[in-house]
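ZP: hey, is the flavin-adenine dinucleotide complex queued? I don't see it on the tracker
AM: it wasn't, my bad. submitting now with these inputs:
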Amino acid sequence: MINLKNTSIWLDSINQKELKPLEHNIEVDVLVIGGGITGMSCCYHLMNSNKRVVLVEANRIGQGITSRTTGKLTYLQDGIYRKIKNSSGTLNAKLYYESQKEAISIVKNIIDENKINCDLSLNDSYLFTNDKNKISNIEEELELLKSFNETPLKTEKLDIEIPTLATIKCSDTYVFHPLKYLESLKKILLKNDVELYENTRILSIDKFKDSYLCKTSNLLIKAKEVVLALHYPYFLDPFFMPLKVYLEKSYIGASKVENTHSFNAISLDRPVKSIRYQDDSKNKYQIFLYGSRNIGTNLNDKEHFEKLKLLPFNYEYLWSNIDIITSDYLPYIGKINHNLYLATGYNTWGMTNGSLAGKIISDLILNKNNRYTKLFNPLRGIKIKKIPLILGSSMKPYTNELLFPKKSWYKENLRFAKKDGKSIAIYTDSKGKEHIVYTKCPHLKCGLVFNEVEKTWDCPCHGSRFNIDGICIEGPSNYDISYKNDQEEII
Ligand SMILES: Cc1cc2nc3c(=O)[nH]c(=O)nc-3n(C[C@H](O)[C@H](O)[C@H](O)COP(=O)(O)OP(=O)(O)OC[C@H]3O[C@@H](n4cnc5c(N)ncnc54)[C@H](O)[C@@H]3O)c2cc1C
């Protein structure tokens, strides 16, 4: 019988050596906050630059959004060129296409030069539809790719049994093991005098003369330049993140297979389907993503996992992941203030965009030109048409929470109470142990929803996640929700 694990295949197939937290105040040239693919890529391009470069990670390197990706390195994304063309014009769509090709070669070069073993596998990528109303979108994407001098093939079928009406196939794309890649980058960075500290959370950033003072709970880092590589930045009140982006959550399963295929695919249809294979020379897996939702809607995670389970696969792993969607489908990468840089909003394509962000931001810091700075300028305006979607997405869960604080699908092992005027929840696990947390997100006080499958408390407004004991595992929240005192009045 298969032992089903509610974690990602990547987290379960790697031993990450824990690094020490920062232990004293320091003064640095560049402080990179966040150890996902973005922060680690940025450090890679800054190493050997004669600058003191330090990366701090609130939890463990690579264990944020990057640890739950599907790990494709592809420029054939989910109809993205058509979307960018419609929001910002064909020239920008072409430049984005070029950026993604460049990102792939950046990662490939790093892997080749350093002989990194991260299960990199050359793949064809497919974009497909089985919806007759979407065939014209496939055709438009194909024509756009041709106009960029790409030579995609139009085919009717995938190499496996997924019904399709139209597909596009592109070559020279890859899949890899994102955490093996980051673990190798970690070793390279440490060898090249980049300092990496885990379990070191930055709680505030204040401008001080020409530098920034970045505070943890008990230490101070003075940095000439600061890179915010923390997925959903907490600190940027004037940047108005909640008014600029919304978030999407997707559900993924990995099951053992006899044979793998050297292709990956994604559909234009809803529910979205995405597939790739993973072969680490010991085990072969099919990784299948089925269904994405705006995080503010259809909040019952179990129901979404059940839909994934209806597919005829024997899952060994089930997990979910959240990414940030921008109003024009272009990431925010670049300078947002004097010597303050931001990289986020990858629209679910952060293996390429996070890797590229590392190069763009290091170029800005090292005063080198980069042809993508204008395209990804984080200070550009938002698309007005998208404002109702963005606002609706974060406001709806607030009202929903006021009307229905206890979700209809919650079981008896989840009780609610009030303590000192604050709402708490008590989850009793299968061994009878109680796990008590506050139920409001410390970020903007949105009511949290319990994800019964992964045993996490998830914020339906801005995507923060907390483990069963209330430890923050994903921002924007920068604080835990753990409740220490167990004297409650049950209501
Ligand atoms: C379902 C799904 C599938 C995907 N599949 C693909 C794919 O196949 N290909 C692709 O290109 N992209 C994919 N993506 C997108 C990609 O995974 C993400 O965009 C990317 O991993 C984001 O990387 P990051 O470094 O920005 O964020 P993270 O990996 O989340 O790193 C940010 C880090 O910052 C840390 N941090 C936060 N706050 C602080 C603080 N205050 N102090 C210190 N550290 C802090 C966090 O702990 C975290 O480790 C997928 C996304 C989803 C949702």
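AM: back. Residues 33-39, 56-59, 63-66, 69-72, 201-202, 229-231, 234, 250, 252, 289, 321-323, 346, 348-352, 354, 475, 478 surround flavin-adenine dinucleotide (CB under 6 Å).
ZP: great, adding it to the tracker
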